[in-house]
Amino acid sequence: MRITFRQILVSCVTMASLAAVSAYAQEKKTVSTTGKGSGVQKVAQGLHSSTSNVGPSVLGQFTPGIEDISVTSRSVSATGVTNRTPGGGLMPHQTAPRSQSGVTRDFIAKQSPSSNITSLVADLPGVTVSNQDPYGMTGDHIQMRGLNETQIGYLFEGAPLADPINYAPYTSTLVDTENLGSVTVSQGSPDLNAPFYNAVGGQITASALNPSHKTGGFIDVAGGSYSFNKEFMRLETGNIGNSGVRGFVSFSHTSYDNGARGPGGLFRYHVDSKFVKEWGDGNSISAMFSYNRQQATSWRSPTLAQWKQYGVGFSYSPAFSPGNANYYKLNQQNLNQQLIVVPMHFTLTDHLHLQVSPYYVHQFGPSLGGENIPAMGGYYGTEQYRNLNRGTVVDGNILTSSRDPWDQKTGGVNTSADWNISRSNTFSFGWWYAYTTHQELSDFRPVSADGTSVSDSTIKVNGKILSGYDLNFLQQVNTLFIADTQKLLNDKLTLSAGFRVAMVSRQGTNLIPGANPYKMQGNYFEPLPQFSASYQITKQDQIYINGTTSFRAPESVEAYSQIFDPNSSHAVIQPQSLKPEYSISEELGYRHQDKFYNFAMSLFNINITNHQVTSTGYIPGTNMMVSSPINIGGQTSRGIQGEFGLARWHHISPYVSGQYLHSTFDNNFNTGTGSLPTAGKVAVGAPKFTAAVGLNYDDGHFFGNFDLRYVGAQYTTFMNDQKMPSYITSNLALGYRMNSYGRVKHPQIQLNLTNLGDNHYLSGSSFTSNAKAHVTSTGVTEAASAPVYYVGGVFAAMVSLSAGF
């Protein structure tokens, strides 16, 4: 295990330091703390959580409510901290009949202001997050119960805003951390009415803050290691006359250098706005708009051998040389997005409630990678070309910027209704429709002889753009659901049953010469029943059981289309299995929640057929990474998870979570020329043990937050002949919050330290069948294929200054 004495020592010293801060603050306090977070929990003016007042409907589905959090001059903070959530914001009250955890502003506000939605849930039970940069801005690699982010549904403001084809969530593009109200994680199953067709592993739900009722705003500026800087400002309209409308608009800029991870860096411009109109009894319309412009130097992923040789220094080249495709300026990722979500809630009658959520999202690149292509005799698809007569020729090759200007647009609407037939019986029904278009036409542009510029014009062959793939993809989704919830025994027993049917229609074409097949289609019709029962033993104690089904349509356009390259006479990537992944899961759980502590635990079992393991790797001979699904057959995952959080006691709130997981493959792996004996092997990306410890202190002025995470070793090949070592990381936040001064509300200074011990570790990986050569069932030797790994973020420090006004 990669845990050194230094990491253990740093963690122990940090825990002792927080205890010392607590003792010092208690000694120095000579005035009453009423209204500053001790006994009377005041609320902050203008910061409103849109999910803190939700209530469970059927099978864990959530119907958003509105909770106004009013902030006064005696409020705890301008950042939204109320110190009311046990575990320092890591264990909010839950009632859904399933495993469910979450984080609130009490936790979010004390993390780095650069964090994304995925990085914020890393302490929750069974959640393993693979960070690549120390600031949590890039990458959304996550595993829950042996399943990764492509098998988890992401909801933001009630709309499914992950990529609808490759299922990447891109959460850094959705919302600034300062505008994020709460995040809820359902580790085993999605909501029955959730607009997903990939969530075999659960769902993650995030919501933005609601606008303030009073005019004002919030400002946050930060600086730190590796030239990190962020500037953020939110302006609140307050109530606009007597219209019942209020809103906010925010803007941020973020940038940093890669530092110890090599040359290059990241910059990001982001805009959020949200407006809310409320009237009558439970009627509301919200409108959320977001814009994101982001460019970052790509992280270079090493094999295990390269990691042992270079460590965190494995990166792209800082200096240019002729023919050097690894020059860092040629390898970049652009994530651009615009989204609109308009969730609406109507009380039609005393017994009938309607929810309608239309949305639109536009995501586009380009992704860039350096590549040398033949100046003569290369290939356009399967057709060989002559002299290109472009660029600078070095050893018969032309150095190019290989571009993937992917462009994707999705529009949809999710509608559901709850009919209260009687006081104890609710019938729910709904429909979701979505339409997606996706275009990808890769091209190659020559790089100047000194590497200082890239041509604006693309290389063409016989008047056509030289490309490895010219993809056009269409998708339509329809899902229908019905459900019924019955309360019995004085509302102590709740029984829910529902049925959802998902219909997904896809077709893709590849216009590259020689593409075979030129056109592929996929049509999926999946019936998905669910059942749950919960019993409220006492007001504080609940037990539940559930059985759910989910499916995932095949991931990525690469599942439907070949990928070509000018260096190869044939396709370098072939279409994969088009069978849908299907899961059946069961849970048995218990939770206790009172004013002193919260505790929850659950036993779970998941059986998956046609399990599609996502393998991310480089197109051979290039720096372009693609995701490709591999059908491993069946997989069974069983385990137990739990979490415990104390309410504030002497301003301290501790938290502990953990999971034991036993996940195995059910079938031998078909290589195409035979099979490998993988049945019974431990599944990839499924650490046996994970755990987290959190400690929060907040007396209204001094505050601190510490967390320690452990992730066990993970196999990265189906044959279990290579694995990623276990690792431990820890983070610390310290700060001081001042009293309000006139219109300046609670200015504060905050220090965030990530990866305290500067542990150099591998945080995630792609997956292959075997890292060593093995003989298949037919006697054919299956060549070795080395996985590539994500390198964990190094140590970084950040100081931020913030205030409301």
Task: Give the key terms.
805 residues, single chain, mainly beta, disordered N terminus, 5% helix, 4 helices
Described by strand count, sense and barrel closure, the largest sheet is: 27 strands, antiparallel
Average pLDDT, to the nearest integer?
A: 88
Q: Which term fits the overall shape?
A: globular
Measured on Cα atoms, how large is the radius of gyration? 26 Å
The number of strands is: 50
Tally of separate helices = 4
State the share of residues found in helices, binned by percent.
under 10%
Distance linking N and C termini: 48 Å
As a percent range, the share of strand residues is over 45%
Class by alpha and beta content: mainly beta
What is the gist of this entry?
With 805 residues, this protein is mainly beta.
Description:
The chain is mainly β and 805 residues long. Helices cover 5% and strands 49% of the residues. It has four helices and 50 strands. The strands form ten sheets. The protein has a 27-stranded antiparallel beta sheet that branches. The protein is globular. The two termini are 48 Å apart. The N terminus is likely disordered.
